Amino acid sequence: MANQKMKTKRAAAKRFKVTGTGKLVRNKAYKSHILTKKTTKRKRNLRKATLVDDTNVKTMKKIMPYI
After folding, report:
1. How far apart are the C-alpha atoms of 48 and 27, rounded to whole Å?
2. Which end of the chain is more exposed for a tag (fewer CB within 10 A), N or C?
3. What is the pTM of this model?
């Protein structure tokens, strides 16, 4: 049987981007609803993207082989 291409998990591909150095970038959670009780400073900091933690990078790269 011929080798088959691996499929990219599209849900993950939409949520993560790869930087020039190969690190994964993600958006922060907790910014979609119940915003009245959160401080302005907290909401402002949630806008910024952040790097995926080292413990999760291996898994994320496995489900996104061509990204």
Report:
1. 7
2. N
3. 0.81
